[in-house]
Amino acid sequence: MKHIFALLIAALVATLAQAQTVKIGSTLALTGPLSATGMIHKVAGEIYVEELMLTVDKVDLLIGPYATANIVAAVGVAQRYNKIIWHHTAGVPSLLKYDMQFPTGGLPADPEVSLPELVFDAVAHAPKAPKTVAIVTSKFPSVHFISVGAREVAKKRGLQEVAWLEWEFGNRDFGAIAARVKEANPELLFIGAIGVEGLLLVDALRKIDYTPPLHFHMFPAPGPMAKSPAAQRALALTTFEQHPPFTNNPVAAAFVKTYNERAAKAGLPDNAVELQAAGSFATWQTLEAAVNGAKSIEDKALAAWLKKHPVDTIIGTLRWETPSNYMPGARLYKIKQLQDGKWLVVWPQEFTAPGAKLLAP
Amino acid sequence: MPSLALLAQSLASGIFIGALYGLLGLGLSLAWGLLGQINLAHFALALLGAYLTYQLGTAGLDPLATLAIVLPAFFVFGAALHWLFARFAVSAFNSLLVTFGLTVIIEAAIQWIWSADFRRLESHYADIRYRVGTLYIPLPELLTLALAVALSLALWAALRYTDFGKALRASAEDASMAQAFGVNAKALALLLSGISAALAGVAGLCIALSYTLAPSQIYAWVGVVFAVVMLGGLGSALGPLIAGIVIGVSEALTMAFTAPSWAPLVSFSLLIALLLLRPEKI
Testing the interface with A: which of B120, B122, B219, B250 to mutate, by most A Cβ within 10 A? Predict the structure, then answer.
């Protein structure tokens, strides 16, 4: 059962002259099907407010929850009260019309085009570029939206679509879907999945002795994937992995160290910083930069400052240049691959882990 | 045109998931039909059983051997739960509310102990599969089917042919008359409640062998298993297994030959059809 737990973080703030209190309200799903990722954002947020301290005065700011549907609802509330809101994981930009909402996870303004293009660019550099693709997807809003776009992108690139399948979010039985994928025998399996759905599908494929040469998982739960033999060589989207060149940034390196410790203490089975934790941290970095840059806590002043100023974060430089405030193009996104139990960036080349390359049969 | 291999593999997949539905529905059906308890916590117990299997399995115990610990513990829990229900004279409807609360408590406990993140039991059983022609049969799913069939048949035979079963059925039909004939209804109810909870533990083993675990998974099968229980007939031992396989196969064939997203409609369409056409069978 989904239960939205209100997380009110109160951070004691020290300026040079005096101590002041900052209150930032956020909501996170800490139970229900999105709770595993909610925990990651909770740990990352706690690290930020405890470790870095905000040096501002009397703040009353909002950070959105995890996942598109929840964020759309939260932005509606912010709009009603004319409050600025930051959020990291809303994958359908067209649903967000409010001018004081600021995405901070690096998602592009056109994820249904830019992200599939990034995936197809990456696999085009595999030892054997795929010519056929099966696009299978959960009906979870953002991943379904991007998967529908992937069909168009694949068509324009001349990739032959050999299967298109959709299932309801929360499906647990992938036996028959796996049999259909095996029957279609694609050179690339594009899985529009969130959480463990993709893992359940590749598990089901393994049970019938089939592994597609290339399989891409949109927003997977990284931990269980890393431990599963069926998921080896899986591809996925990311903005950050805890290896160079990302960890060359000292702020990122410090965050990785602290997150690894805190995630272990919180009992999370996977303690690595990746897309979700990094996006959460970037949100807090943006909030701090805006408040310090605008030298104000007024919502409109913060929004105006963000519209004019890019912010450097651990996932790269965030900009809010488009009408929807989203990034133009997928410039902060990368493709990672699971190799020997570790997620390594394999595309674009300038961000690949040392010595890593995209592996495929 | 889909191949025979796809048809056969989908059928097998439907039978396997149907067996899990049947196994989850078995304890629920017996408690509902014979004790008048609508035990929503049955699903939470099954997932708790899965987590315990995961924990013990990760510590090095063979997953099947974990039943030696889980089953007695769950039996005692189930019997104690019924004792409380009897002590406070909880009605059938109230049992639904109370066990819903218990479900939330168990979910919170699971999350507190194992966190909300996904957990996965890596066992050697997961790597074993048998090939029959073009058909692949994974061992964990085969174990689920074997356990579901064996337990359903055993309980069916016990209810039909033993004094224990006859006494239980008599108590369910007319408790005071059964007591007049010397049936110790209270002790039988404790025993059956314990057995139902132990069955949830067996289902938990099967879930741990085949699925990635998350606390919210408690609710993944509630709807379909309730449909299975009602289609199979309350208090029936074989009914849930048969209804589970009918629904599982129907869902799998829907996934194989139409849009997979239509599959959830199958179980409830079958239930509505039965309610309209054969309401006396519920």
Answer: B120
